[in-house]
Structures are given as C-alpha cells and as structure tokens.
Amino acid sequence: MYHHFRYNKNKSRVVYILRDILELSVYCMSDDRGNLMDKNKTETYYILFEKMISSMTNYEGFERSEFVGILDEICELFRIAKGVTEFYTSLSNEKAGQGEILIDHDNGRGEKVVVRRRVVTKTMAVIIGTLYMAEGDEPLTEDEYLKVDLILRALLSFVSRNRLQGAVEMLGFFDDAGYPNLRSYNRCLEQLNQKRALPGHTALHFNLRHFSLINSDVGRRAGDVVMRNYFNLIKEVIGEDGIICRMGGDNFIAVFENRCTTQIEEIMKGVPVSCDITEDNRVMISATAGFYVIPDGFEMRNEEDILNKLMIASVIAKRDDASSIVYYDENMLVRKDQSMRIQRIFPKALKDKEFRVFYQPKVDVDSGRIVGAEALCRWFREGRIVPPMDFIPILEQHMDICQLDFYMLDCVCKDIIRWLAEGRHVVRTSVNLSRKHLVDVDLLEHIMEIIERNQVPHQYIEIELTETTTDVEFKDLKRVVKGLQEQGISTSVDDFGIGYSSLNLIREIPWNVLKIDRCFLPVEGDSESDVTTLMFKHVVSMAQAMGLVCIVEGVETVRQIEILRENQCSIAQGFYFDKPLPVEEFEKRMEEACYRVPECE
Length: 601
Ligand code: C2E
Ligand code: MG
Ligand code: MG
What we know:
Blueprint: H1 13-30, H2 39-56, H3 64-77, E1 82-88, H4 91-96, E2 100-106, E3 112-120, E4 126-133, H5 142-173, H6 182-194, E5 201-208, H7 211-218, H8 220-238, E6 242-248, E7 251-257, H9 261-269, E8 271-274, E9 282-285, E10 287-293, H10 304-318, E11 325-327, H11 330-351, E12 355-364, E13 370-381, E14 384-386, H12 392-396, H13 400-421, E15 428-432, H14 443-453, E16 461-466, H15 471-486, E17 490-496, H16 503-508, E18 513-516, H17 531-545, E19 549-553, H18 558-566, E20 571-573, E21 581-582, H19 583-592
Parallel strand pairs: 10-11, 13-15, 15-16, 16-17, 17-18, 18-19, 19-20
Antiparallel strand pairs: 1-2, 1-4, 3-4, 5-7, 5-10, 6-7, 8-9, 12-13, 12-20, 12-21, 13-14
Helix pairs in contact: 1-2, 2-3, 7-8, 13-14
Bound molecules: ligand C2E and magnesium ion (2 copies).
Residues 374, 432, 464, 494 line the site of one magnesium ion.
C-alpha cells in the first residue's frame, strides 16, 4: 500500500522522497481511484518533482530563475495562486516581523490559505511556507493536498538549509560590523591561486592614520561612517576581480588587479571622506600602506606567504621617518632577518660589555675650549665597530633601547667619578635617552637611581631627549624634564629641526639647551637670503631670547663657525673639531686644554 511520506532521521530525506515518488508512480499505474490524479497529471507531477529535486541539489550551484520556473509549473498543476516563504533567524525576529519574505509564485488571484507549514530549526531559526488558492477554484483533493504538502516540506527544508548556510557564511566570513574578514581574504587568494592568476595582482595592507583622533573629533558613530565610506571608495576601484577586507580595528587588507594600483595609491595618500549621509561634513583620510606586487610565476604555498611580506612593508610605512607608502622588496626580508638577529644577540652583547661610550666634545667657538661632551654609543662586534644607526633604530622597535641607555648613563657616571678622582678637568656630559623611555612612569627615579648610586654631582650630567609628536608623550616629556630640572640635572632637546619641531615644545617644557640639528645649519654656497640661513638666524635668536643655550650639531667647516659667531651662537659640536672619540683619546683632548679656532674676520 502506498505510504505518503516517511521520515527516518537516520537516512537522508532525499532518499525517502525519491522512494516515495517511485512507489507513487507504481501505485498510480496499478490503481484508478477517483480520489487520485489521472495518469498524465501524475506523470507531469513526477517529472516536475524530479526537476525540482535536481535543481535544489545541483553541485554546480543553485539557479534561482530555473527553480522558480519549476515552481510556477508545479503551482499551476495544483491550482496554487501564490506561494510565499518566510525566514526569520530567531523566534523574536519572527515576532517582530523582521525576516526575509520571498514570493516564489504569484498569479495575482491568491486569497485563500490552503497549506501553511512552520518549521523551527535546532538553532531556533523559523521558516514558514504558505500556499494560497483563488476563492472560486476547485479545492485540492486529499491526494493533491498530500502531494502539495510534500512539495512544500521539501521546499522548506531546502530553504532552511540554504538560509542557514548563508547565516553561517556571514558569521565566518564577515566581522561584527559586516566587513569581510581575513577568512574572506584568504578564500579570495586561494581562488586566484587555483586559477594561477595571482601574478598580475597587487596585495595591500593599510592602516588609517590618526583614526582615534578622527573618532574623538567627529564622534564614534560618524567615525564608523567615515571608515565605511573610505572602504567603499577602495572597493569600488577594485571591482569584481579582488577583495578588500578588514583585519580588525583600522587595519585593512586587499588584493586587486595591477591596473588599480595608481588609483588606490592616491586614496592612501589622502582623500576627503564624508562623515554623514548628506556629505556636508568631510574629513581628510589617509593611510600608511604596504604594497606587494605579486611577481610572475608566483604560486602561494600557504596563507602567510603574502601576508608576511605585506606586514614587513606596512611596518616600515608606519615608522614616522619613512614614506607612508612602501612597496615590498626582497631586501626588506634580509633587513628584517638582520634586525631579528640583533634583537637576539643584544642581551648577551650587553652583558659582555661589547657596547662602549665614545665622547664628542662640545666646543666654544670663540675660545676653542671644550665646554661639554656628548656620550655616543659604539658597538664592538667581532673586531668591527657597528655605528649606532645600524642598531639603535632596531633596539628602539622594542624596549631593549632602555637597557642600553641606562647602561650608557652608568658608564658615563663611572667615567666622571674616575676623572674627578684623578683630579682631571671635567665637563658636563650629555647622555641620549630614547623616546621609548617615556612610557616608563618611573623613568625619573631610574635616572636618579643611577646617578645617585655613582654619587655623581648633578651638574655634570645632561639628558638629551628628542622632540615628540603625540599629546600623550608630550605630557610625559614635560613631567620628566621638570623632574630632572628640580634635581639640578640639565636637559636638552636633541635634533631640533628634524621632524615636527613645534614651538610649543620649547615654550611649554623647561629645557636648558636646544641642540640645533645640522639640517638647519647653512652650508657652503647658501646665501644670506636663503631660507635655511634665515631660519637658522631666527631659531637661534628666539632660543636665546627664551633663555636657552644653543648648541649647533654637525659643524664641519670654517664658514659654519663664522656663521655661528655672526649669530652669537657660541657652542658647536662637529667634525670640524672632532668625531666622537674613544675615552682615552677624549681624555687626551681634555688635557690639551683647547682647539685652535679660526681667527675672527
Ligand atoms: P645624535 O644624538 O644627534 O648625535 C649626533 C650624531 O651626529 C652622532 O652620530 C655624531 O657622530 C654625528 N655628528 C657629530 N658631528 C658631526 C658632523 O660634523 N657631521 C656629521 N655628518 N655628523 C656629525 P652617531 O654617533 O652616529 O649617532 C647617531 C645617533 O644615534 C645619535 O644622534 C643618537 O640619536 C643615536 N645614539 C647614539 N648613541 C646613543 C645612545 O647611547 N642612546 C640612544 N638612545 N641613542 C643614541
Ligand atoms: Mg644626541
Ligand atoms: Mg642630535
């Protein structure tokens, strides 16, 4: 006997549906009860049902238009005027009427509900299917009803699977704010890689500049709009062949065809972006970006392949001294390895006393007398002297630099105490402290502990700090400089003139000394009216008017000494007198009492 539909949880629904269809067709041929549809109609139903199952389970992908076509035919066969499916992700969304409603068939005559099925899935999603007939049409026979119900149930099971798959996909491949995430990115790379299409594409990682400031300026909500608009701008350039994803915070990653690169570079450099829908308010948004042009023949072995390269370029782009757009090249990897090596060997090198202090005299340009010195670090490694530029920036990437600076300060203290004990003439000596120290809330105590432990009279020590760019650092800097001042320790602004020199920095912080960088110093051939010459003049006279001592760094020529004299700036530090010297040589210079200086004109 024919059983309409049996459902066994252990077996696939489709197997049962197909078996029922088979039983049904055999049954229809052997019996001829009035309640059943005629053979032709049954055959049509069978064919349509098979078509529907085949369309729903197509490996190549689901074709909605084809599927709707089949449903239309089925509906016609059973006099169904309208078919509607609803999908809600939760019971509360169902209550609130917040879901997706799809009308799969509608001939405009459907008024009477004939079948309504509501399914609640294990994840509490709700799927509802409703079929309508026209009021006057012949009602469904019992047999027709069972068939229509079977179709509806098959349809709902398919819709629920499809929708849930979509929901899972959304959770896995998008973040909370709806941006595609790293998984989407990797999937796109995989697809391109499979087609061997990665060459011809460029990968990009970027970070929005000062986005926390934008957020505090325009508010968080407007900040979200800005981010979304900036994202969309790039997405539009990329088009279909590529992707842009958010990695988290204000970090993004993208891959696109090489032809998009110029346009995207322009966007990275800075564009006005609106913070509301009306586009009345616009803010300038730029980014620091690492690009990687994927080379010919490139095949991705794993997901990190491209990401690692991007991060190397992006980290370089983020350093404030570098360009904000950096293209990856293989040398960067070599340099990264070198820098990792330096970080690895640093602790032992420090313990083994491979770092030594060199002293560069600060000289009074009128008398030629040594009036001070700067302690500069040299690394003696495997019989070679490594210059600071080869290791200081690397140590500054982490907090390693702080250990080195304290070590240098300690060595200088020990030299000063020895000189005093030996009855030598001693001058104030400055020690460089990296900006990295500013995060240390106990910095002042640490400096004083070293000086006190060595029992160095405070007037012999000076601390050099460079300018800062952020508000937070500014506050810390002010606190530290003030604290040192109260202890009678002199402080100097190092490298004034490079970077973002701010007049506020010298007005609000009680420095003793301004060290003017050599980029401010006019060179041979610069005339009186050159901008450099003018700026030098004014910076010196302004600093002096504020009661600061000016020291000019990088003095190399007679002409430069004359310029210093012309501007009543009396202290110079530079190769004209000496390079940084090993301690024994520096001690000899101190004994010689003074340098020969050029005669005044
Ligand atoms: P800085 O503090 O501005 O030091 C002055 C630099 O200018 C020194 O480079 C010095 O050798 C160089 N210099 C001096 N006179 C002349 C000149 O006439 N012409 C030219 N072209 N250069 C001159 P050095 O020793 O290579 O140090 C470079 C930088 O490394 C220093 O710049 C400082 O920022 C950093 N540094 C050195 N030692 C230390 C240290 O112990 N701790 C920290 N944190 N930084 C250090
Ligand atoms: Mg210095
Ligand atoms: Mg300097």
